[in-house]
Design goal:
α3 packs antiparallel against α5. With 194 residues, this protein is of the alpha/beta class. The chain has two domains: 141 residues, 3-Layer(aba) Sandwich (Rossmann fold); 41 residues, no CATH class. It is built from six helices and nine strands, in the order αββββαβββααααββ. The two termini are 19 Å apart.
């Protein structure tokens, strides 16, 4: 968040669209923004009593219902890897680039050896069908998390982590930052300032 604020410099009179986000993410972010809209595929409560206030919306990040340049800033944090195959990821990237004048999109790095959704090493480098039983049984996330095995399976099956080259190709008009952990690429951030 500090890097986002420093580079994108959101101002009080500007509008932010958080594609795939939730209102609680913005609580205590230290922003003086008048309007943040959080669009997700499932209902969430508004958080108009927090700072900054956030209005929840339902929609599809691959088909945004807004005109070109409708928001001063389009933002997305670890969502593009969940929208489907590369074609769906391209639609998501095209849509967020279309509606945001400035842009900030973050995603986990394929090059990082730990898959961030199940917290297991190397599983995103091997075809999912070969590993599904192992991940469902020994994933720390599955073991610690309460919930439906089918829901966890579907979430893992439909997650597609991008390589840096793929991510760059989806955001040709953006600069790409690589965030590192212990020298290894942990995530990629595409940002556009104009």
């Amino acid at each position: 968040m500090k890097r986002f604020i420093a580079l994108v410099n959101p101002r009080a009179n500007e509008t932010v669209l958080d594609v795939g986000g939730c209102p609680g993410f913005w609580a205590g972010a230290g922003l003086e923004i008048n309007r943040i809209d959080a669009l997700n595929t499932y209902p969430q409560p508004d958080a108009l009593d927090q700072t900054p206030p956030v209005k929840a919306m339902i929609g599809d990040g691959c088909n945004l219902p807004f005109p070109n340049g409708a928001y001063d800033i389009a933002f997305s944090n670890s969502v593009i890897e969940h929208v489907g195959d590369l074609a769906a990821q391209r639609r998501f990237a095209d849509e967020i680039r279309r509606v945001g004048q400035r842009l900030w999109v973050q995603t986990p790095a394929f090059a990082f050896p730990i898959e961030p959704h199940c917290l297991m090493p190397f599983v995103h480098w091997i075809p999912w069908w070969k590993l599904r039983r192992l991940v469902l049984v020994v994933s720390p996330v599955k073991i610690l998390r309460k919930g439906d095995k089918a829901d966890f399976y579907e979430g893992m099956r439909t997650t597609r982590i991008l390589t840096k080259a793929e991510f760059q190709s989806l955001f040709p008009d953006c600069k790409i930052l690589t965030e590192r952990f212990m020298g290894l690429p942990k995530c990629y951030i595409a940002y556009r300032l104009n």
